[in-house]
Specification:
Strand content: 5-15%
Helix content: 40-55%
CATH class of the largest domain: Alpha Beta
Low-confidence stretches: none
Number of helices: 29
Strand order of the largest sheet: 5-8-7-6-9-10
Length: 759
């Protein structure tokens, strides 16, 4: 029997002998012998073990994994062999608050037992599995073999020198048309016949990508290839597991295939090369990898994608999920490829001037700050310059030197907080917190946005950034890459003001209005709530009049009963997110500027549900369904898995139920918007219009539109958004508010704040 050790972070109550059912004997160790430490650092580790004495070492949790290997994520590698003898596994203690991890734990245990008993053997990757082609005739013969192969699909991948087509070129392509085999072909050996054969192949077979949006962009931009029918294993896995951060090819290879971390040898080569040549991670060029090193890794990319498709395609047997994939995700992938290529339009000169102006304002605020005698006193006593970006120094300055009274808000370490909310509150005691807050906010705008956007602009002054279909559990798009379009500064219009249409064009932004409540009214079949939409008046005023039975016309509610209107608004949005009386009380007090007690809030909630009793019944029914089943389907078929409803922690359980309810309305509203944008983009292309959709931001669709197309664009977009997709109130389509028809995305706020200084 092999000799085995098990290492956990610190002494725990987990009976690992029982967990492994005495399948094998093992010696048990802890990184740290002190069970009282909440967080164990390397300096706290007092373990005494010689791993050479053991055939296998089980590493429980990320701390143990990081201690013995260069790997940080235990979740990815749980149950899989690392290096020669290490077997990582998630910590079973997490099952108390993450019941969804139970399957991972059980599967990992079975895998570990299999390794130790010799029932699982390592897979050796050879040139049989992945090989390289640098000869034109050999490449063309391989493409013809793929065309003639019986498989109705092929797996395809690209190796590139950049993340965006305009930033780099294709080094090669990987292709697999049978199990466990893939080839990597150097693009330098391709000729016209190669491209003809490839297009024939793409026309004949379903082309399987992993992250199709990335590869489509490169193949279409650099070779003008067309893909009539494609699949995406990343999006298929998104149907299986909707949680963000779980869809990487490496992660899925480790989890679902026998090839594990096949990338490691190549990344080891890259690490050695960078170390030898003193190259930073972001400066490394993939073109420097020798073909002989690249071919095994790249060929396996296609081979693994082929295997994953065979495994994941079965999810399409679920008709609801198949509809999501075929009708939303795949068309959405084509759509996002287009809008990413359209790019976000920026005014380069305005960016440069904004950058300069922001620095001037920061400098002025710093000068004003350093005039305060408290700063001089601080520097004299501490013997160093005051750094406003240092939280430690700022805390000392505000509470020790200036003598401000803390707000009571603490950090995770128990220290007094100095976040934006606290600084705003402390501003009532001194001018210093306000100056610090001003410096922080403007520095963030300059450093995070203005400074980074400028060098990333393409020659046409547009920024190509990323949008993702798989980045949220609700189905809302996320944004990543060169610029996160979902996180532009709200309080200052300077960045939005630099998103500016070319002369003769306008920025047009369409916003869905009260879409989630609209969806809820339909799903709940609440006639009273649907009638509010049919009435055509101001929505929140109409709600307030009905709930509070106000003695005035709807159009006078905002003026005469502003607090009641705020209360009705807070409840309308709050109940979609599971807000209770406490939350409603806080929100109304904040919005109205008048005290609104918990009792007041509870009365409003009661009256609200009295007016819309079917909505209440629908909420309760779905809460019960989620609790009993641990999942829920949206109207369009998306599935939200909520295993934490099984948690014994009532807080975690309640949060999970609220998340499920919110998912029902947010997901449906988001899909209405996305489907409308997809159809609109198709219409633009089919009719050779010059309008270009360049972003979806929350519930907004942003486009750059020629002035002579604006009216037609808005009319057509409203048609597609309000199209009856099974979620419509007769006579009252979902609201489309065209907020901005202006030269820039700020809608005129930029010029109001900064005038002619940087116009």
């Amino acid at each position: 029997m092999p000799k085995v050790a098990l290492v956990e972070t610190k002494p725990s109550k987990t009976n690992f002998k029982k967990e492994f059912d005495e399948a094998f004997e093992f010696d048990q160790y802890q990184l740290c012998s002190d069970p009282t430490l909440k967080k164990v650092l390397k300096r706290d580790c007092d373990i005494d073990i010689n791993t050479d004495d053991y055939d296998w070492v089980i590493l429980v949790g990320s701390d143990a994994l990081k201690y013995f290997t260069p790997i940080n994520s235990v979740t990815e590698y749980s149950g899989k062999k690392v290096e020669e003898k290490f077997l990582p596994v998630i910590n079973p203690a997490m099952l108390a608050f993450k019941p969804e991890a139970k399957r991972t734990w059980e599967d990992s245990k079975a895998s570990i037992i299999g390794y130790i008993k010799g029932e699982i053997e390592d897979t050796v990757i050879t040139e049989y599995n992945a090989w390289g082609i640098q000869d034109t005739e050999e490449a063309n013969a391989f493409f013809q073999a793929a065309i003639d192969a019986p498989s109705p699909y092929i797996a395809l991948d690209s190796e590139t020198t950049g993340l965006y087509p305009r930033d780099g070129h294709m080094l090669g392509l990987s292709l697999s048309y049978e199990q466990d085999r893939g080839a990597y072909i150097d693009t330098e050996c391709l000729d016209e016949e190669s491209e003809r054969l490839l297009q024939e192949l793409f026309n004949k077979k379903a082309v399987v990508f992993h992250n199709a949006k990335f590869d489509l962009a490169f193949f279409e931009y650099h070779f003008n290839f067309k893909f009539p029918h494609f699949e995406d294993t990343m999006l298929l896995h998104y149907l299986i597991d909707e949680n963000p951060g779980t869809h990487g090819l490496k992660q899925l290879a480790i989890k679902y295939t026998k090839y594990g971390d096949y990338e490691k040898p190549m990344y080891d080569w890259i690490a050695d090369y960078r170390k030898q040549h003193g190259i930073l991670k972001n400066d490394f060029n993939w073109g420097d990898i020798p073909f002989e090193v690249m071919k095994l890794y790249a060929g396996m990319d296609a081979a693994v994608t082929y295997l994953l498709f065979e495994k994941f395609v079965k999810i399409k047997q679920n008709k609801r999920l198949a509809k999501v994939y075929d009708n939303i995700l795949i068309p959405g992938c084509r759509f996002l490829t287009d809008i990413q290529d359209n790019g976000v339009p920026f005014d380069k000169l305005r960016l440069v001037k904004s950058q300069s102006l922001m620095q001037e304002q920061i400098d002025e605020a710093v000068v004003e700050l350093y005039k305060d005698p408290a700063i001089s006193k601080f520097e004299k006593i501490n013997g160093k310059d005051f750094n406003p970006n240092s939280t430690v120094q700022l805390r000392s300055l505000l509470f020790d030197f200036v003598g401000l009274n803390p707000t009571g808000k603490k950090t995770g370490t128990g220290a007094h907080s100095t976040d934006a909310e606290v600084l705003e509150a402390l501003g009532e005691q001194s001018h210093i917190p306000g100056l610090i807050l001003n410096i922080r906010q403007k520095s963030k705008i300059k450093n995070t946005y203005l400074d980074k956007i400028l060098p990333q602009l393409d020659r046409d002054s547009r920024l190509r950034t990323g949008f993702n279909l798989h980045g949220t559990t609700s189905g809302r798009l996320s944004s990543s890459g060169k610029l996160n379009m979902q996180q532009l500064p709200r309080d200052n219009p300077i960045v939005k003001g630099c998103i500016k249409a070319a002369p003769g064009n306008k920025i047009v932004a369409m916003d869905l209005t009260t879409a989630e409540v609209y969806v809820a009214a339909i799903l709940a079949k609440d006639k009273a709530l649907m009638d509010v939409f049919k009435s055509g008046g101001n929505f929140h005023s109409t709600i307030a009049k009905k709930v509070f039975r106000l003695p005035c016309p709807v159009e006078e509610v905002a003026e005469k009963f502003s607090t009641q209107r705020q209360a009705a608004k807070a409840v309308t949005f709050g109940i979609m997110y599971g807000a209770g009386a406490n939350k409603i009380s806080e929100q109304v007090t904040k919005d109205s500027g008048k005290p609104f007690t918990r009792a007041d809030a509870q009365d409003v909630i009661d009256e609200y549900f009295n007016a819309f009793h079917k909505l209440k019944s629908w909420i309760e029914e779905n809460q019960m369904f989620i609790k009993q089943n641990g999942f829920i389907y949206s109207f369009f078929g998306r599935k939200r898995r909520l295993p934490n409803v099984a948690s014994t922690d009532k807080g975690i359980q309640s949060h999970s139920i609220r998340s499920g309810l919110n998912f029902l309305v947010q997901s449906a509203a988001s899909d209405i918007n996305l489907l409308g944008a997809i159809d609109m983009n198709a219409w633009i292309k089919a009719n050779n219009k010059k309008a270009r959709i360049f972003a979806l931001v929350h519930d907004s669709i942003l486009a750059e539109v020629p002035e002579d197309e604006v009216e037609e664009y808005m009319q057509k977009l409203a048609e597609y958004i309000q199209m009856d997709r099974g979620l419509s109130i007769p006579g009252a389509p979902v609201g489309c508010d065209f907020e901005i028809v202006h030269e820039d995305y700020s809608g005129g706020k930029f010029e109001k704040m900064y005038g002619d200084t940087i116009v």
